[in-house]
């Protein structure tokens, strides 16, 4: 498997406050893999996401995505965040269409092939259990439904890389587990690499093939662990001893990272 996202000895300082956010950061995620990044609060997880998508550039080291050094915002990436950030004046379907209005080649094709794209958006909504939500406005949907829509919007332009920054953090535990299964199924059906930033160690263990633990700020990877559970994974897995053992191990590593700040 070839590396799809590779950060080599990366350091990044924000100009505001001269904050050294990450230092000596090395990370390699293979094509098609589901990777998770966990670590203490403020350790630079979101900074890692910004560096991997070309929203920030490191002062030192290299960031390579899909074989190319990142020197501009990465167009092959889709993103979803803790807040669903849907535009309230657009219907769900219109929100999904937004990336298509921006990202080429869809942008040039959209007007002439609108029906084809609408069909694709509706199929995507149906695949996440939102068959009739297309005509509704975001404020007519529950938090979980909004986050499902946000995932669909991140995937509508068929990105090769999906970046998820705490996408389920604001949801109740039950809805969150439902959404784990939604993203698990989207990843199984799709053809993309995922990097998920999360505070939830169970979430990381359930979803990921590989988990990276970061140190306290300035963040760097202090542990990397493969999660070998067979796929498709069922939520029952989360009640097994093997699963708990991984969660405990991750918790211990993060506790250690917090105390050795
Ligand atoms: N735009 C910015 N300008 C200045 N400093 C920033 C900026 N963004 C982040 N930082 C600082 O960089 C450090 C790392 O922040 P980052 O958001 O990457 O951490 P995080 O691990 O995602 O945090 P959390 O777990 O709390 O979400 C923090 O000290 C933060 O205050």
From TrEMBL:
* Molecular functions per Gene Ontology: ATP binding; ATP hydrolysis activity
* InterPro entries xrefs: AAA+_ATPase (IPR003593), ABC_transporter-like_ATP-bd (IPR003439), ABC_transporter_ATP-bind (IPR050166), P-loop_NTPase (IPR027417)
| Any Pfam family matching the protein | ABC_tran
Keywords from the named record: ATP-binding, Nucleotide-binding, Transport
Q: Has the keyword Manganese been applied to this entry?
A: no
Q: Which domain of life is it from?
A: Bacteria
Q: Which residues form the ABC transporter domain?
A: 5-241
The record's family statement is: Belongs to the ABC transporter superfamily.
Q: What is this protein called?
A: ABC transporter ATP-binding protein
Q: Which organism is it from?
A: Phreatobacter stygius
């Amino acid at each position: 498997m070839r590396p799809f996202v590779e950060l080599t000895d990366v350091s990044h300082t924000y100009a505001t406050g001269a904050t050294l956010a990450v230092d000596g950061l090395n990370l390699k995620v293979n094509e098609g893999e589901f990777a998770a990044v966990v670590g203490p609060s403020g350790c630079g997880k979101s900074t890692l996401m910004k560096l991997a998508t070309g929203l920030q550039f490191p002062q030192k080291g290299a960031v390579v995505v899909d074989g190319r050094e990142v020197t501009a915002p990465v167009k092959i990436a889709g993103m979803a965040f803790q807040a669903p950030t849907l535009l309230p004046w657009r219907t769900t379907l219109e929100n999904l269409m937004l990336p298509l209005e921006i990202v080429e080649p869809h942008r040039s094709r959209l007007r002439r092939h609108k029906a084809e794209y609408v069909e694709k958006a509706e199929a995507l909504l149906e695949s996440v259990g939102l068959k009739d939500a297309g005509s509704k406005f975001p404020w007519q949907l529950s938090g979980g439904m909004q986050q499902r829509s946000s995932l669909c919007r991140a995937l509508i332009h068929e990105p090769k890389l999906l970046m998820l920054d705490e996408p389920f953090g604001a949801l109740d535990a039950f809805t969150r587990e439902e959404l784990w299964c939604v993203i698990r199924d989207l990843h199984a059906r799709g053809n993309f690499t995922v990097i998920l930033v999360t505070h939830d160690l169970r979430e990381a263990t359930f979803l990921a093939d590989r988990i990276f633990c970061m140190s306290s700020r300035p963040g760097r990877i202090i542990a990397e662990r493969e999660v070998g559970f067979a796929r498709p994974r069922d939520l029952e897995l989360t009640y097994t001893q093997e699963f708990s053992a991984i969660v405990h191990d991750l918790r211990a590593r993060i506790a250690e990272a917090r105390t050795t700040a």
